[in-house]
Design goal:
single chain; 437 residues; mainly alpha; 2 domains; three-stranded antiparallel sheet; 65% helix
Length: 437
């Protein structure tokens, strides 16, 4: 049993691999649905905007929600297909998106030399249930589209990957970041003639989609601060930085969500705002961020950090086939999304989910660099112990006391790190030099 769990996934026969993928997706979907209360998903924050779009009332939806058209319109079409119920359309869309995103994740992992137990680890992370809890928002739908892009990158269908910028941009304006990461990941790997074709196709696809979105959202009201859209998007950065990083709770007379009367304010005249100030200080957001970092993806962030650190110091990284456009994109896109999460929005723990390619796709690829045939029993046991610690992390969220949850999660991370050191053994630089000698 120990040997079977720690053997490389690519050693499976084709039939066995597909059976393993099917079983892993079934486990992931079943567990995720057990953790989510489906009747409450339509009351999640901001869900009303997308329900309005699906019901054909885009003109009543403010920006930036009105620019996220495709997911809601597909849900509306599915609703009409199944009897005219828009909410049923969102549920069907979420089910299909979840299965495809999980299936693509498992397929990408199963092509690598990563140990077989990793399939279970990838499927049993709390981030999947967070995506389903916010299924009315375009996040789960976008994850499925992004999974399709990753599959195309793995198969080196770069022209089709470039064309994927069209549905992605129709779904979220943050595709501008996806586009930049796609070009940055592939530019040095593509031939000179091909790189201009792929880049031109990707930029044109995103540009055309932006024009289409502008027409679909024509007539919709602007943001509640009545600022130009680009100014509004850039102004969100310092606002969210103050709240999510510094701990200062910002206030304006056009946005009184955090308090009605500020403790300090100054007069300004920007759009509909006539004063800005602060409601005081609070570290609640920072503590929530720590908990989200420790639990959303289990111990996969720890594994990703250790593997990336050793990957960058490995002398043979340039010759490794795992260093592909797919790996570069997963590392770049996931890393940037993770770092920018605190400045993108108020619910930045939820925004951390955008970094899923870093933990669910890059980790199996990075593990290819550390595959060793001479693992002893102790190292194999350490792998299973690491899996056990990883599966223990979500149970921390069941503990009722907030601060004690973080203490327990940190303790699990500490144990996971010790098991990780035992599993990986010597630093990769030492391993390579020993092999050369």
């Amino acid at each position: 049993m120990l040997a079977a769990l720690t053997a490389p996934m690519c050693a499976w026969s084709t039939l066995a691999r597909w059976m393993a993928i099917f079983a892993a997706v079934l486990l992931g979907v079943g567990t995720t649905l057990m953790l989510v209360s489906l009747p409450t998903v339509f009351h999640s924050p901001d869900s009303s905007h997308y329900l309005q779009i699906a019901n054909g009332h885009t003109i009543d939806v403010m920006q930036p929600f009105a620019s996220r058209q495709l997911g809601a319109r597909v849900a509306a079409w599915l609703g009409r297909l199944f009897g005219g119920d828009v909410r049923l359309g969102f549920l069907v869309q979420a089910g299909l998106s979840l299965v495809f995103a999980m299936g693509a994740t498992c397929w990408l992992a199963a092509r690598t030399t990563a140990p077989r137990w990793l399939l279970v680890a990838l499927m049993l992370v709390p981030s999947w249930s967070v995506l389903v809890q916010y299924l009315v928002l375009p996040d789960l739908w976008y994850a499925a589209l992004l999974a399709g892009l990753l599959v195309l990158l793995a198969k080196e269908r770069y022209l089709w990957a470039a064309l994927m910028m069209w549905p992605l941009m129709l779904s979220r304006e943050s595709t501008s970041l996806t586009l930049v990461c796609f070009l940055a990941a592939g530019w040095a790997r593509w031939q000179r003639r091909e790189r201009w074709m792929y880049a031109g196709t990707a930029v044109a696809s995103a540009g055309i989609a932006s024009v289409v979105v502008g027409r679909l959202a024509a007539g919709s009201p602007g943001n509640k601060e009545h600022l130009p859209q680009m100014v509004y998007l850039f102004a969100k950065v310092p606002w969210n930085f103050l709240r999510n990083v510094v701990g200062m709770q910002p206030w304006s007379d056009a946005n009184t969500d955090l308090c009605r009367v500020p403790v300090w304010s100054i007069p300004v005249r920007i759009g509909s705002m006539h004063a800005v100030g602060t409601c005081g200080f609070s570290l609640v957001q920072q503590l929530i961020a720590v908990e989200g970092t420790l639990t959303n993806f289990g111990l996969l962030p720890l594994l990703a950090a250790v593997l990336w650190w050793r990957h960058r110091r490995w002398a043979g990284r340039e010759q490794n086939p795992a260093r592909s456009v797919l790996l570069r994109f997963a590392l770049l896109y996931g890393g940037v999304c993770y770092v920018l999460a605190p400045v993108l929005g108020a619910g930045f723990v939820h925004l951390m989910q955008y970094a899923w390619p870093l933990f669910l796709v890059a980790v199996p690829l990075l593990l290819e660099e550390f595959r060793r045939e001479d693992l002893d029993t102790r190292q194999k046991v350490a792998q299973i112990g690491f899996l056990a610690m990883h599966l223990l992390v979500p149970l921390v969220l069941l503990w009722p006391w907030f601060l004690s949850r973080q203490v327990f999660a940190l303790a699990i991370w500490g144990a996971g790190y010790l098991l990780l050191r035992e599993w990986l053994g010597l630093p990769i630089t030492e391993t390579v030099s020993a092999t050369v000698k």
